[in-house]
Amino acid sequence: MANLSGKRVLVTGASTGIGRATAVRIASEGGRVALFDVNDSDAESTLRTILDSGGDARYWHVDVTEEREVSSSVDEAAEWLGGGFDVLAHLAGILKGSGLEVTQVDESIWDPVIEVNLKGSYIVVKHVARYMIPAQDGVIILTSSGAGVIGGSSSVAYGASKGGTHGLAMTLDNHLSRHGIRVNDVLPGNLDTPLKIGATEEQLTNTGDRDRYDNIMAGLSSPDGVAAVIAFLASDDADYVRGSVRTI
Length: 248
Description:
Layout: E1 8-12, H1 17-28, E2 32-37, H2 40-52, E3 56-61, H3 67-81, E4 87-90, H4 107-135, E5 138-143, H5 156-176, E6 181-187, H6 194-207, H7 210-218, H8 223-234, E7 243-246
Helix pairs in contact: 1-2, 1-8, 3-4, 4-5, 6-7
């Protein structure tokens, strides 16, 4: 296990999937965790799991696409954590339009995916960096994907958003490394999460391809494995790791 004792950590998308698994894992390894999400009921479940296990966490309802909301919540979380952040694990994301051809993708699908996945990444990093840059220290972990980075995606919008997030991570590394801030992005594979299951079901509805659906569902992996990788990246032991980290 990584040693995260005393680390001040912000986890977005903390209600389910990779975000929940990561928040629980980091708390179990000694980190103090600020939880951001819009899914209050599931985020409260994450919070209870951490607190019942003896961890330290607090939850904020935050829409990552709303900059004023992010800014004020980041300030509140920083104050609760004692004045700043050691780690940002930005894991909030959505997936829409799975199985649709580009000619079938309208703005009601494209816009929210780009807003949450790409714009949300920029907004959250922008405001967490306000604390990390003066401290000349920190770790920022973004969530890209194999989709849009090493291959395509079942969703045109999702692949574009994750390719953009990958580009953002590389650019941030160039800009922030001189401030002592390490930036990584994680490229998870097919995981047993509500996001992936929902996308796979949407793809079945849109394509009728039952064989593909069965193959994907049979090959899903636990988000706990990715959470372990993120916890390592959050630790000082990962100081030599740079760039993108691909997982199954």
